[in-house]
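Data card: per-record layout.
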Amino acid sequence: MTSLPVRRARWAFTDTATLAGRALAHWARRPGDLLVVLLFPVLLVLMFGYLFGGAMAVPDGADYREFLLPGMVAMTMLFGVETTYTAVATDTARGVTDRLRALPMARAAVVTGRALADLLHGALALAVVLGCGVLIGWQPRRGPALAVAAVGLLLLLRFAMIWLGVYLALLLRRPEAVTALQTLVWPLGFASNTFVAPATMPDWLATIAAWNPLSATVGACRELFGNPGWDATSWPAQHSVSLAVAWPLLLVAVFLPLAVRRWRRLSR
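The structure for this 268-residue chain is written out next.
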């Protein structure tokens, strides 16, 4: 006879898969919304690659588009926090979350189902942007194993952004507040090593950019993909792979418990 913990684990897994399927069904019924979200980072890649690329100086005269792609895919993972926030806040504002909480299901399935669906969404966005990169001449140059490791780091960053988005959505409960979230996330994206070497910035901003979690993932992906990057003179730049693991895990360790706690306190 199956033990109670095993039955509960199966119940939680089934409910999580069901709620993830609900999110995927929404995207299938409204493919236009999904298409816009997926094409936006492609537009950024093309815009920066062809409109601004000629004005950008890459170390050792390397190809700018190979330099650009690791940064753009990392920014795509970072900006995914807006997608998570909007979906969770919309469900909360419309009362959908309260109705789901009243159903006989695993208590955490709503947020874990959302996390699973958004991770799949992030993987799809990552595939689209990398595919665009291949079409414009980008390629990983250190073999498939290290390329897979880079993809893993990108998805780890997206996973961390999911829990940040879930927590903020449950805290604020207002879909329109995504505009305020953008005013915080976009500066974080550009105050990094994605486009400009931190060494060229004012000292205080260079420190922020060097320790930016996005800079760690971008630097690690450039290293693992074998693409050109800035000279690694600072300690964070020299340990980008380690920080690209440590930063997302730290964010998950902080915001996953906060999101679960906030979820449990919604009815209070």
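Known properties of this structure: The chain has a mean pLDDT of 85. Residues 64-93 form the longest helix (30 residues).

See the next section for split statistics.
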